[in-house]
Write a structure and sequence with these properties.
Blueprint lengths: L1 H19 L5 H11 L2 H29 L5 H21 L13 H14 L2 H16 L5 H38 L2 H5 L4 H18 L1
Helix pairs in contact: 1-6, 1-7, 2-3, 2-7, 3-5, 3-6, 3-7, 4-6, 4-9, 6-7
Amino acid sequence: MNTTITSLLTLAGLGAFHGLNPGMGWLFAVALGMQEGKRSAVWRAMIPLTLGHLLAIAAAIGVAMLAGIALSPTMLRWPVAALLAVLGVRQLYRHLHPRWAAMRVGMGGLTLWSFLMASAHGAGLMVLPVFLSMTALAQGPACHARGASTQALTAGMATLVHSVGYLIVTAFAAWVVMDRLGLGLLRKAWINLDLIWAVALILTGGLTALV
């Protein structure tokens, strides 16, 4: 039980980390709010941004669950670790930003944009090591149907907890920049989050292979 709680807190923390990244959505939400001159536009953007991020996480977990039909969680961690490391190294040299979206998009377009951004940055892959560890713990002598039901419940819980962490931090970051600091701060105190993100992907891949 304690291990499950730790895993869920880790997933929430990863969601918070993803939410801190301006490329994951809060900068887009602030830009929409400033364009429309309405704070409500910022909060309205939170729904499609979170939905798109949630779908990206759910898609990655869904693929892992399908692969898990043939491979155990222990075997799956190796390709996941390799993908994380490769994506991190690639991010060091080439920033992955879908460029088709303009600032003025509808809710459907913003959901798709958020999904693509989370997928391109490897957000779903970063969640998989924690999900696989939870799945491995949940496995046991139970029958196959009960095991599948437990895995589906774990997947839903992991996706939801991660997305809540993402939403809280994304909304908080957008509020702080919009109402307290202003976009001028980004020109004076910019942090290279692309570099931090790349290093985090590589470290996560290494830890996934070692644990």
